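Practice set, problem 2.
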Amino acid sequence: MKQRPQIYYTQEQKNLMWYRWQAGDSMCEIAKLFDRGHSSVQNILAETAGVRPRRRSRSPRSLSLSEREDI
């Protein structure tokens, strides 16, 4: 069996995976969208134990770029 090249999912593709997962689709159904096996989707979802990670945001107490440059 020939091994497929590794795929790096974009943030847009990962968002689609999370949306479909929360809608109740199985990993196999999600993987079919990307023509991959369920294990490639499983790795993305397993990183955070199946819970969608929160959007990253900088703390309001942190310094801005210009303030860091001054220091």
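Problem 2, part (b): a different protein.
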Amino acid sequence: MDLLQAIVLGIVQGLTEFLPISSSAHLRIVPAFVGWEDPGAAFTAVIQLGTMAAVVLYFRSDLLRIARAWLASLRDRSRRSELDARMGWYLVVGTIPICIFGLAFSDQIETGARDLYIIGTTLIVLGILLLVAEKVSRRDRDIATLTRRDAIIVGFAQALALIPGVSRSGATITAGLFLGFDRVAAARFSFLLSVPAVVLSGAFELRHVIDGSAEGAAGIGPTAVATLLAFISGYASIAFLLRFLTTHTTGVFVAYRVALGVLVLALAASGTIA
């Protein structure tokens, strides 16, 4: 991977990580469109650390408050009823499904799941589910009403994002809407829940990038550049989406997902991309 590819893929990762359009799909599709090699699952997981740094910075006050309350609740059970303490426990519970499935299906995720037909199909299917969620959601719940059951359901939705094309934010926001949360609350919990999962995933794959053993390994230099740009563009993406969802539906993302999915399937079937 040369510097230009690292720059492009870093920006793509940052812009698409928090929008419900699947960053992992775009990191597979963009190279296919321009004739570059697939950067691989390890590269994708590591540069997601850049976008996680962005979400940690953006929500630093919330995360620090949650961490303090959660740690206090370990010593004092009476504090477990507080919203921030409960949120800490919900983040732990919601992260368990993706850890289990990620370890159980790591080989399939890094190989077969990056197939363009799978990506095109999941882009369309999740887009349709997001549209249905928009139509049926009551959107009368805020994040203060979150329960353990909600965290478990959204956590299993996040595990679906192990398949490129599903989208971590897309799956979790869709689940949040089905549970009756308003769009901003669904997105906010989606972003917070992504932190532990992506940090664990990136740390797990980082060793492959460092020793060069990952398929399509990019090397430390290009990976560092891509991670930095993912951080910068990711921060801008978070701020944009939270503002956007206060006054808009997710309809534009649904249309984009379906159109892109159809295009990917058509080009893959014709042999134009491989």
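Answer key, part (b): The chain has one domain: 3-270. The chain has twelve helices and no strands.
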